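Document type: protein sequence-to-structure record

Subject area: structural biology

Format: plain text, a pair of labelled lines:
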Amino acid sequence: MARRAHPLDLRVVDTADGHEVATETTIRQTDFDIKPFSLMMGTLKVVDEVVVAITVRVPHQR
């Protein structure tokens, strides 16, 4: 399987406590040659768009 990469511009924001940063974006599986999951002959499907949310905890500086 070939790997596919796409650059993303993400806006990262500080959380209220100042020790985390967070971002969220939406990607389409088909942009990465991934066929959206389906089950039971197509009666159960996963949408093409997936929301990816990331929160990173920043360690305390000493």
Q: What stands out?
A: DSSP finds no helices and five strands in the chain. The radius of gyration is 17 Å.
